Amino acid sequence: FTEADVYQQSFNPQAYLKEFYSMSDGKEGVNLFLTQNLKSLHKMFSLDEVRGGTLIDVGCGPTIYQLLSACEHFQEIIALDYTDQNRRELEKWLRNEEGAFDWVPVVKYVCELEGDREKWAEKQEKVRKKVKQVLKCDVTKANPIAPVSLPPADCIVSTLCLEGACKDLPTFCSALRNIGTLVKPGGHLVMVTVLGETYYAFNKQVFSCLRLEKHEVEAAVEAAGFEVKLSEVQPYMVKNECMDCMGVLALVACK
């Protein structure tokens, strides 16, 4: 199991982004993984009830892809991640600094899903304006954002986070309960979780992943006080050495 301190010491956000989010021609498998997830997020954030004032992104990593559809339906976004360098990398993009990762191809893809590829610059601006805070969090703690406290949000989104942060199913269940405290009653949880995966790798480093089945994730979500409203699996048939994922679960639940 890849412990938290390994992430803190040796997770390289630039290498991670380049491996999994650069949408380049030679990466059919990784591109498919990304585009499937973007389609799922587009679908989930198009649901009428998934909207409101505040969205909290739990385990954002150095990425913004999970906010591209979401930003149309929430007034403000708070991004949380454990790793200092991930938060710095995200802030670099938010401030439009030189050397920040180029998300334009991904943003254009999402704009195309929404019906107008040419709105990409506007969407980037919207994300930059709406992300109000980038804070440290630890999903294994009862209050994941201690010592900070935030008013409960209308929605929390968590993509590809808990399965990397939790060493076993009981820890995963408890992490879901912990992040569930960040959302108000009647609010929503939007999740993208890999299934059947034991590792992902990039930059000659291997990170562990908790091998999950669909029914285990659904049971954990329900045990955390949520009612599952949508739960769909996209099979992932591509064989590549950077991960052994079997499928991706897209899930929406109401507290």
UniProtKB/TrEMBL annotation:
GO terms for biological process: methylation. Keywords: Methyltransferase, S-adenosyl-L-methionine, Transferase. SUPFAM superfamilies: S-adenosyl-L-methionine-dependent methyltransferases. S-adenosyl-L-methionine binds at Y16, Y21, Y65, D81, N86, D138, V139. PROSITE patterns: SAM_MT_NNMT_PNMT_TEMT. The keyword Transferase applies. It comes from the Eukaryota. One of its GO terms (cellular component) is cytosol. GO terms for molecular function: N-methyltransferase activity; S-adenosylmethionine-dependent methyltransferase activity. InterPro entries: NNMT_TEMT_trans, SAM-dep_methyltransferase, SAM-dependent_MTases_sf. Belongs to the class I-like SAM-binding methyltransferase superfamily. NNMT/PNMT/TEMT family. This is NNMT methyltransferase. It comes from Sclerurus mexicanus.
